Amino acid sequence: MFEKLKQVKDYRDKAKKIQSALKDEHVEGSGGWGKVKISMDGNQEVQDVTIAPELLAPNRGTELEKSVKDAVNDAIKSAQKKMSARVKEMGGLPSI
Question: pTM of the prediction?
Answer without folding.
Answer: 0.62
